[in-house]
Amino acid sequence: MKSILFSLLGTATLVVAVPAVAGTTADVDCVRQSYGSEGTELIATLVRDPSFSGIGAKSGPVGEALGQLIQNSVRACGEEHGWSPEQLLFAVVYEVGRLTEEALRVTGGLTAPDINKLDVAITAHDNAEIWQMLERVMMATLGGDDEADSTPGEDTALRDFVQSAGLNTNDATVLSVGTLMGAIAMQRVGLREFESLRGGN
Prior knowledge:
Layout: H1 2-9, H2 30-33, H3 36-46, H4 60-81, H5 85-107, H6 112-124, H7 128-142, H8 152-164, H9 171-197
């Protein structure tokens, strides 16, 4: 499971420092709104590219292009609204998770019926243990803990969840589900931590 989160979190290094200025703190959706029509159209194309393998400079041309778009928009929002370095970080975490989820729903190895079943299962069940595991490993990795990983019990819980959702429990499907849920977990963490910092500039 660690490899899933490491691949998703790599783009957090896109965060750039901007001067802290007085002013209100915009919602994290400022990043999405800052792409403009041209950027939004480009993103719609990139996240559907079959070669998608992540976001960032180490993820090939598609991932690099997406990473640059995120970086530019986060920088623009940060400069306009005086976001702190921590807010910049979690804005990136949220947006990487959002675009990664969008891409994985098309290119992530799950069929449309599988994704429908997964969406139902995510909504119908609490899944607290799985979310806690994904978020715990994510936060530890962001904090520089290269040894952070899921426990065997947590891995079993994920596989049991996949089975309860009516999906195949082979390794490829479990990995695809874990990766997609990891992208959703990035959004949960990014939004929660960003909101906790609002008004703190």
